[in-house]
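For the sake of transparency, this paper describes our internal protein records without simplification. An entry from our holdings is shown next, in its original layout:
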Amino acid sequence: MIIRKIEPQGYCNGVIRALNIVNEAIENKSIKKPIYLLGQIIHNKHVVDEFIKRGVIVIDDKSKSRLELLDEIDNGTVIFSAHGVSPKVYEKAKEKKLNIIDATCGNVLVIHNKIKSFLKEGYDIIYIGTKNHPEVEGVLGINNKINFISSLDEINDLNIKNNKIYCTNQTTLSKFDCFEICNKLKEKFENIIIDDTICNATTIRQEAIKNQPKADLCIVVGDLKSSNTKKLFNISKEIAKINTILCEDLNHLDKNILKDIKTINITSGASTPSYIVDEIINYLNKID
């Protein structure tokens, strides 16, 4: 069996920073305890479970917003995840006199600041993202006048009369999907300013998986909640046209699908620990 590791892999810089922040908080005896994570620090169950073992309390419920989840924290330290939070979450945490540690990815903070700046200058904002994603929740919480779309079809529903329009997007979208949406927006709004804010780490991985060599199977390793992981899966399957599976770890790998497979490409999302990919590769190398 031929196994090709499609690079780059491992954590992106934003994930590394977020994990370092949590580790430092755990080890710092002067930090107020208990330590709470408001939502998953990154979208990877293995990583989050390790922090729970070390005493961190994770407050996460997909049916509740970050603002609502704060109701469950009354003391100690709250860490905001790499996905970012809205200004209202910040304000509420301060009102509750919680010790706040912000692990928001730098790329996400740039988007927040740009949107605030363009709003002050009188622009209408269009934001492209994935419904119910925490990064999207944080951005939409900046101002209730932000126009949110997640697909080409929703462009037709936009009714903006302002000639000043600024468009930006979630950092982990598919660059190929985003390109199509932005082109259609340009057709509808002549003076629109398009700001492609898909992060560099996401873009490089997507290009690599788009241009991967032909294989019998591509395995995309990552958490099922991870947006950038799911985008890699879609690009491999729909653009590269390769038989592709998405798998969290070795335990979730469907061994039956490996029958008669001769060549495998393997990649991973930006929040997937390297050891999980290595475990899968080691297993594959032992198959005759």
User: Anything to note?
Assistant: Residues 44 and 223 are 5 Å apart (CA to CA). The mean pLDDT is 95. The chain is about 40% helix and 15% strand.
